[in-house]
Amino acid sequence: MPDKPAPYSMRDWKQVAKDYDNFIFDMNKTGQYLPLSTISSSNGVNYPDVRRIMMATYVGQNSSTTAEAINIMPAVVGASLIGIDKTNQFGNNWVTKLKDFFNSKNGQNVYLNNYSAGTGGDWWYEIMPSVFFYQLYALYPNIDADFNSQFTTIADRELNVLYSLGGKLDPRQAPNMNYRAFNLITNTPNATSVPEPEAAGSIAWLLYQAYKQTNDMKYLEGAELGLDFLQQWGSNPSYEIQLPYGILTAARMNAEEGANYDINKFMNWTFCAGPGTLRGWGCIVGNWNGYDVSGLIGEANDAGNDYAFSMNGFQHAAALAPVAKYDKRYAKMIGKWILNLANASRLFYPDALPQANQEAASYTWSKQYDTNACIPFESMKQNWNGQKPYAMGDAVKGGWAPTNLSLYSGSSVGYMAAIINTTNVEGILQIDLDKTDFRGENTCPNYLYYNPNATDATVSISLPSGNYDIYDAITESVIKTNAAGSIPFQMPANDVRLLVIYPTGSTTKTEGRMLKTDNGDVIDYHYHYDYSNELATKAISFNDHLQIYPNPFSDSFQIATSNNENIKTIEIFAINGQLVWKKNDVAVNTDINPPVGKGIYIAKVITDSGVAHYTKLIKN
Fold first, then answer.
1. Residue 390 and residue 305 in contact, taking contact as beta carbons nearer than 8 Å
2. Is 208:220 a contact under the CB 8 Å cutoff?
3. Same domain, 237 and 379
4. For residue 589, what is the domain's CATH number?
5. Distance between CA 226 and CA 250 in Å, rounded?
6. Cα separation of 455 and 527, whole Å?
7. Which of 42, 126, 510, 515 has the most C-beta neighbours closer than 10 Å?
8. pLDDT band at residue 535, thresholds of 50, 70 and 90?
9. What is the DSSP string of 594-617?
10. Among 337, 296, 291, which Cα is nearest to 2's?
11. Is residue 541 part of a domain?
């Protein structure tokens, strides 16, 4: 992959996302195949008081009879990520209307791709709608009273999937996720067709999100089980977009929970195609007849006939950008890849390639109606009937629609647009590592900068109102103090910087591997590049390095560690996840007397090295 793609031509992606949102949600548009969205006049399927959103998946489909969650939901989330308030636009609250995708009437009780759909057919269509809902709820936590119960119901349903597929806590056993899907009604997996084991990643993402929202330990245990499957799995499970969400969860749990999932293996899976790959899915690298396509995601078999898909790159960028915050060893790689991806993604749009290199009906419609070129082709083929490359899709040849202009692809553009901004230096992007880190520790803004150029550069960063210190997590140094407004900083050639902004006057402290402010806000998750975690977090019992005794206990208990390492923090949670007691700086082999009543609890013990341990704790 080149340091800097050539030719370099970066679109204003935020403007593309705004134009797209204005186009597809404007129900007053007229012309062939327009409008692209409508509001149903009939009652909702699951919530009768809701008037459902209907929207074409491809330009040319009947917008009054078509509705797919993998299209409509990311369209609302993506627009929201770039600052558009979807609760009041064109006279509609688009956010609340989405809740009818929660299939309660048929007993599925999760978000699905249609307003009434089944499960057990395809995990991509049966899990990603819930992922999009979790993102929506993070952005709009107080908009609809039904969202909270939907949130926990989904988590419980997916937790049951892991246990039904063989996941166990004692003895520890990863579930078998090598299936196509799972039927939530019959409680059975689908073993036919191409399996989608990467769904372990998206389910782990859902459950860790649920844990961060509710503090209920059972969801952390479930997230671990999903990642345990990927940890022990031997072949590349990449299928669509679910693995990157698992990678983010693994990196985050390594940083926050003291786990040690194999991020390098997972990253290689999502970027590298070739032998052992489920279906040749990965990151495309190369130049197609003068067009640099490096960074695009799709079928990357390097056999002269690769097939790139627009939506996949947008979603991969959103899921993987925050990984750099939680594991800075991948900062340069992620910065370089996102630069290439953002540059090459323009080729999916009708204003990029010559007319002869685009499917004809799509090009003709776009030139007349989409003058801002904001609706992309679904895909681009390296070679199609001698045209290299060729913007196209599967809809026309499959008979699904008269064009290959893909709303389900374009609906994710806001995800990528939200995380990137151009700077005063060509080729250097500011990548926001917090924007798509849903329910993350985002108090101190994190920005990634990658310099693809052969010369040093002076880059400007615009700070929020107030005075701030700027810390670089790569060099582990404070590069600016008491800064305000627009501040220049130096970017060495072909290098990366990960800047963290925190209020001037804050003192810093180390807690285990982390560098924090005096308020507990994380500045660096792996200070001094410390990645000395254990093999994996084991949620239900302590390992050989740490023991609690007696357990059950009556009045007090003690904690022993194999190397007499002291305890930084012990927290005791009720079974419902509520924190009931906490104590810092506890010496080993001394009496601990928590003022709790008789019952069953979960104890979380963090040693001085920053490793977290969990166990069931019983008071008699």
1. no
2. yes
3. yes
4. 2.60.40.1930
5. 10
6. 28
7. 126
8. very low
9. ----SEEEEEEEEETT--EEEEEE
10. 337
11. no
